[in-house]
Amino acid sequence: MSHPVTAPSASTDSGGPGADAPKPVRRRARWRPAVMAAALLLCATPVASAAPGTADGHPPAHGAAPLYISDYSDNTVLRLPPGGGEPVMVAATGLIRPTGMALDASGDLYIADTGNNRVVRVPGDGGPQAVVDTDDLSRPIGLALNADGDLYIADSFNDRVVMVPADGSGQVTVPTTGLLHPNGLALDGAGNLFVADFVNDRVVKVPAAGGPQTTVPATGLSQPTGLAFGRGGDLFVSDSGNDRVVRLPAGGGPQRTVPATGLNSPYGLAFDPAGSLYIADFNNDRVVQLPVRGGQRTVPVAGLRTPAGLAIPAGREGY
C-alpha cells in the first residue's frame, strides 16, 4: 500500500547535510575521523544531484531478487539484476546523499534522501517518483516497513523515530527515550522495532504491543548502523566503529562476530532469498557477500563511492 505523497521538490538546504546540527556529546573521545564522517552520513558538502535513471532501473514487482545499493557520494541508487549482470541506475531524481532503503510488497522502493530531509518512493510499476508526506524530518537515515505497509523512519538529527501509517492518517512519533542520532532500523517477525542508537553505542527494542523500550544485550558496540534479521530471528548489527558485523542470537546465546574480513565502517545489511548476507562496506567503496556455505566475495560493481544502504525484496532469509 502506498503512503501519502506530495510532489517532488528541490532541496533548499544550502549548507549541506548536517551543516546546522549540533555536534553529539560523546562519553569518551574515540571518534576516528573516517568513521565519524562516514558513520554519521551527515557532514559532507552536497555534490550534484543524481541524473535520471534508465527506464529499466525502476524496481521490479516482488518475486525477483535484485540488490539495491544507495551510493551515498554519487547521489544515486543502483539496481543489480538477479544473478548478476550490469547494474542500472534506479529512476530517482534529485537525490542528495541517499542512505537507507526499504521495499514494499508491490515492489515500490523507498529511499531516505538524507541531504534533502525527505523520503522518496519509486513505484515498482514504473510510475513517477513521489515524496512521502512527512513533517520536519532532519537527516533521515534508516527505513523499515511492517506487514501493514506502515513506514518507519530514523529521523536522525531529531533524535527520534517516526512512523507514517499506510492508511494516510498522518505521521506519528514512535515512543522512545534517550536516542541520539538513530541510524538503522529493523522489524522482527512479531513486529517489534529495533533501532541502532548510534551515539549511545547500543541497539534498543520497541515492543510492537507497547510498553517500555529495552536495550538489546550486546557487548562492545561502537556506533552501530545497519540492522537486519536472519533465519531464526538472529539480529545482525553493523558495528561500524569496530569495523565488524556482529550476530546476536534470538535465544540469547553468546554474541558472535560475523566472519567478514577487511571491513571499514560497515553500514547497510541485507539478506537475499538464498540466505547470503550482504554488507555495505562504506569506506572501502564496495559491497561484500557472505554466502551461507561460507567464504566472502566482493560484489562486482565498479565505481561505488561510499555505499550506505542495501535492499533486497523479501524472501526466504537465512544465515
Describe the protein.
This protein has 319 residues and is mainly beta. The chain is built from one helix and 25 strands. The chain has one helix spanning 33-40; strands at 5-6, 67-71, 76-80, 88-89, 98-103, 109-113, 118-122, 130-132, 140-145, 151-155, 160-164, 172-173, 182-187, 193-197, 202-206, 214-215, 224-229, 235-239, 244-248, 256-257, 266-271, 277-281, 286-290, 297-298, 307-311. The strands form six sheets. It has a five-stranded antiparallel β-sheet, with no helix packed on it. A four-stranded antiparallel β-sheet has the order 4-3-2-25, with no helix packed on it. The longest helix is centred in the first third of the chain and has 8 residues, at 33-40. The radius of gyration is 18 Å and the shape is globular. The relative contact order is 0.15.
SSE layout and pairing:
Layout: E1 5-6, H1 33-40, E2 67-71, E3 76-80, E4 88-89, E5 98-103, E6 109-113, E7 118-122, E8 130-132, E9 140-145, E10 151-155, E11 160-164, E12 172-173, E13 182-187, E14 193-197, E15 202-206, E16 214-215, E17 224-229, E18 235-239, E19 244-248, E20 256-257, E21 266-271, E22 277-281, E23 286-290, E24 297-298, E25 307-311
Antiparallel strand pairs: 1-8, 2-3, 2-25, 3-4, 5-6, 6-7, 7-8, 9-10, 10-11, 11-12, 13-14, 14-15, 15-16, 17-18, 18-19, 19-20, 21-22, 22-23, 23-24
